[in-house]
Amino acid sequence: MKATLGRILVIAALLAAPAVQANTLPSDDASPDGPVLVRFDPTMRETVVASRVTPRLCFALSLPEEWRQNTGSGETSITAVSSSAEIDINLRSARELQDHPQSDLAQRDAVFLQQDYETLLGRPAQSVSITSPAPGATRWSATWIDQNLPAGSHAITIEALIVPLSDEWVLELSLAGIDTPQSHEALVRTVLSGLKVRVGAACRD
Fold first, then answer.
1. Axis crossing angle, helix 105-121 with helix 5-14, rounded to the nearest 10
2. What is this structure's pTM?
3. Does the keyword Signal apply (predicted)?
4. Tens digit of each residue's pLDDT (9 = 90 or more) over 56-74
5. Which of 94, 114, 144, 178 sits most deeply, having the most CB atoms within 10 A of its CB?
């Protein structure tokens, strides 16, 4: 079972983890310049998720079919209308990662996520993987196994696609709710191929 951020606190309760606040949301002193906007084009049958990170840095993610932004949660997440697929979207400042020695920003973020979730869940992961699914992207995933988890395998996997947008910002994308591993990997490819980063004057539009 793969989980997005919105399910993690429930999982922590199942594991009887201590009530520790994790840092899985951007800090107040490192907030992006604008909100994440979700727009569906019924003619093109395409959803565009976009955000202005700084006045000269922005990104846009194009996804086929209709996706809707979830409300009432602390993070930005979208859900596919035609399925249960869900994507959590998080921006993180390099300032939050400055305590980690890795020279690569994505690697520092992977270490940050690993430590953060282990603190939140109250135990180390049994399995950790860091791979590169596409040029410029890193995939971090960690698996916890516990008899108290409801899934048939009694395992939960937390995964994030990490894409550095600049030397100062990294984008985290977490996918969940996909029925099969093949469909999950297909959505990973769709997300990474549909992500565009713009800098400078291109961000004015």
1. 40
2. 0.86
3. yes
4. 999 999 999 999 998 765 5
5. 144
Q: CA-to-CA distance for 18 and 35, rounded, in angstroms?
A: 32
Residues 6 and 10: their CA atoms lie apart, in Å, by 8
CA–CA distance, 89 with 86 (Å, rounded to integer):
10
Structure-token pair, residue 68: 């809707």
User: What's at 38, amino acid-wise?
Assistant: V
| Three-state helix/strand/coil letters over the chain | CEECHHHHHHHHHHCCCCCCCCCCCCCHHHCCCCCCEEEEECCCCEEEEEEEEECCEEEEEEEECCEEECCCCCCEEEEECCCCCEEEEEEEEHHHHCCCCCCCHHHHHHHHHHHHHHHHHCCCCCEEEEEEEECCEEEEEEEEECCCCCCCCCEEEEEEEEEECCCCEEEEEEEECCCCHHHHHHHHHHHHHCEEEEEHHHHCC
- Domain residue limits, the chain: 2-203
* Tokens of residue 119, six digits: 């603190």
With cut-offs at 50, 70 and 90, classify the pLDDT of residue 37.
very high
Find out whether 107 and 25 touch, Cβ atoms under 8 Å: no
- Name every residue whose Cβ is closer than 8 Å to that of residue 94 and which is 6 or more positions away in sequence: 105, 108, 167, 168, 169, 170
Sign of CA dihedral 114, 194, 94, 22: negative
